[in-house]
Design a protein that fits this description.
This protein is mainly alpha-helical. The protein is 85% helix and 0% strand.
Length: 170
């Protein structure tokens, strides 16, 4: 079940008095922070060797991995922060950041900021929308899908162009 659904549902339940609002906020934020840290550490420990061995099957050849490494070297914090709000990136980004050897300290800071804003926003959204949570989740899921698709296309175009630019400069 998508994270937004669970967190919005928690907000709805706080509106109905089933859950305590402070507890729901704390659990949502802590869960997001802990989950991403686990993903990062798994990526750091297991990710790169696995991606190098099996990445070709999913379109992640060595050249693509090097570009992703460069992206995290230059824009790692921004990628972690923005990726928190894009559904399919939220699940993969911590693993990719760890596999790309992004320094842990900036990851922790940007992850904590993003997870805090994300957790508070979605719990309060559920709280204020009350019984309309299914409509809100559907709307936000569609927006996330559109934003995520645009971000993925932009990243692919950027990675291809930067690869061409490097090849032509050599």
């Amino acid at each position: 079940m998508p994270g937004e659904t669970i967190v919005i549902l928690a907000g709805v339940l706080t509106n109905f008095g089933v859950l305590d609002l402070r507890l729901a906020l704390t659990v949502a934020v802590a869960g997001a922070i802990i989950g991403d840290n686990v993903g990062f550490l798994l990526g750091r420990r297991l990710g790169r060797p696995w991606l190098e061995a099996h990445g070709g099957r999913i379109g992640m050849q060595r050249e693509m991995l090097e570009r992703i490494d460069g992206l995290f070297a230059r824009h790692g914090g921004k990628a972690v922060l923005i990726g928190r709000f894009v559904g399919f990136l939220r699940a993969m980004l911590p693993f990719a950041a760890g596999a790309s050897r992004m320094p842990y300290a900036p990851f922790v800071v940007y992850n904590a900021i993003g997870a805090t804003v994300w957790g508070i926003f979605f719990v309060l959204l559920g709280y204020f929308l009350g019984a309309s949570w299914t409509i809100a989740e559907r709307w936000l899921g569609r927006v996330g899908l559109v934003v995520g698709t645009v971000a993925l296309i932009a990243a692919i175009v950027w990675l291809k162009r930067s690869g061409r630019a490097r090849r032509s400069a050599e």
